[in-house]
Amino acid sequence: MLILSLLVAALFLLKTTFGSAQQARTHRRLAASNLLPEWKLQDEERIMEARATEAFPRLQGTKLVTSSIDELVLPSQLAATSEERDAPKGESSFPRSDKEENASHGDAEAAAGSSLLLKPWLLPRISNWDEQRQIWREKHPCEGNCNNYKSSILLVSSSRPSPCDNSHGDHIMLKFMKNKMDYGRLHGIKVFYNMAHLEIDMVDYWSKLPLLRTLMISHPEVEWLWWMDSDAIFTDMTFEVPIAKYSDYNLVLHGWEQLVYEKKSWIGINTGIFLLRNCQWSLDLLESWSVMGASKEAREEGGRLVARALSDRPLFDVDDQSALVYKLVTNGEPWKSKIYMEGSYCLHGYWDSIVDKYEEMMQNSRPGYGDERWPFVTHFVGCKPCAKQGHYNETRCIQQMNRAFNFADNQVLQQYGYKHLELGSVMLEKTNR
Ligand SMILES: *[C@@H]1O[C@H](CO)[C@@H](O)[C@H](O)[C@H]1NC(C)=O
Ligand SMILES: *[C@@H]1O[C@H](CO)[C@@H](O)[C@H](O)[C@H]1NC(C)=O
């Protein structure tokens, strides 16, 4: 109760005094004096409430009913103060207190050879998540994977809170979201679609890391979080991930060990689609992984770091994928041994080599393989459907995204006796049923 009141008081202090250097110093003292306790899964009622509304974890004892993102206060924001913005020019923007330097497993490795230091946005830290989750599960034996493994998977995707920069993007986002909902419904997998930008400094592809962490600690019943980029689409609606195969692993990505460890290639894995186990290891990974993405300066410096360390990475701000490859090739453990690189089916299927073959597949193959014969996922890497400009021919991207949607949609409509006249068409025809 004392801790709870202190937490509320600390939050109040932070919120009301947000913005000046004086208060930043106050916060630094607060943080340094351990007033920010570890987050605990002790208030079951709160958890149930959070689960019921798919809400984000709230601060203990506070009732935050939020209607806008600006009001949304997450535990992590206790630590994400205005310090950075207030830091005088010329001074490093990375907080450098001892406590913060020790805050993560990842800071040492990320900082090796550079001045990168952890910005502690992932506070309050959790160090006994496996125990907390175990206790929770003993109290709620039939939540989650009681019945079958599928109910222990949460499919997570996300797109931006504001409209797309072009006229077609929002329609494509809607179609790709419908596709994920269809897949989830057909396989009894719950879907969490996010449109809130939780951590303002974690931009683009980095934004999924705070989201996954938030969902992980709000859903102790979930065993696997399944991240899928908004520009990826299920194209085999019958294929199921062989989850039992991954029982000894905590992270499953599409990729090839040889490309990562021998060639040190930044495209040896794809971080647009992956499965992440709900456990302490994953919380630690998210914390460590996010170091390079936590600010503009970190991403610039990280970009230089990965361009030097990896064989084929051009120089630009570091992305989450390069950061993970970098982590694996420079200081692999404890991550390496718990990561499964899946190459036996298209957990991520690169669109450019798939999309022209859909008709051929419909002629000669059938759903169920998940591999090149009928790819599980088609991922429109680089098409950037919601942005002003992608890396590829925009006309081709839009055409092919619509075709991929119809290719998948045919597998849904077939149950109702319909299919698309052709993959490029919204028109339907009746099938013989
Ligand atoms: C940080 O870690 C170093 C080395 O492990 C240790 O000597 C130091 O006391 C730690 N500082 C804090 C504040 O925990
Ligand atoms: C872009 O793609 C469309 C459709 O595939 C094609 O007709 C057009 O020639 C392409 N444009 C360029 C510049 O390659």
From TrEMBL:
Residues 96-108 have a biased composition (Basic and acidic residues). Residues 78-111 are annotated as: Disordered. It is a single-pass type II membrane protein. One of its GO terms (molecular function) is glycosyltransferase activity. Residues 1-21 form the signal peptide. Keywords: Glycoprotein, Glycosyltransferase, Golgi apparatus, Membrane, Signal, Signal-anchor, Transferase, Transmembrane, Transmembrane helix. InterPro entries: Glyco_trans_34 (IPR008630), Nucleotide-diphossugar_trans (IPR029044). GO terms for cellular component: Golgi membrane. Coiled coil: none annotated. It comes from the Eukaryota. It is found in: Golgi apparatus membrane. Belongs to the glycosyltransferase 34 family. This is Uncharacterized protein. It comes from Ceratopteris richardii (Triangle waterfern).
